[in-house]
Prior knowledge:
The protein is mainly α. It has helices at 4-26, 28-38, 48-76, 83-104, 108-128.
Amino acid sequence: MIQVAPLLILALLAVTFLQSGYDKIKDWKGNTEWLTGHFANTVLAKQVPFALGIILLLEIASGALCISGIIQHLMQDVVIRGLGFYGAILSSITLLFLLLGQRLAKDYDGARTIVIYFIPAIMAVNWLS
């Protein structure tokens, strides 16, 4: 039996991370410049391009695993601990990295926004485990 709720959360995570990754690729220079200012007074000040690259890889991998998990779930017609589960876990880890960055930058509104995405990611981990 297809369970819709985990699929919808995986779709939310996939859209979120694939769009964010695409934006980073499309406007690498603009993102790097903005984030350099955002993290100017933090331990990440001199590592913005490296950190951005790590986040980009995590976002693309998270989104791809979530999409793969949706496909796997629809093909197998059963909730299993498969690609969607690993996509939800990687999404949660990615969000924790983003949360850490926002907290280091003392951007508490940005941190609060990330928590809004973290809650469904953890729900997906729970449903798919």
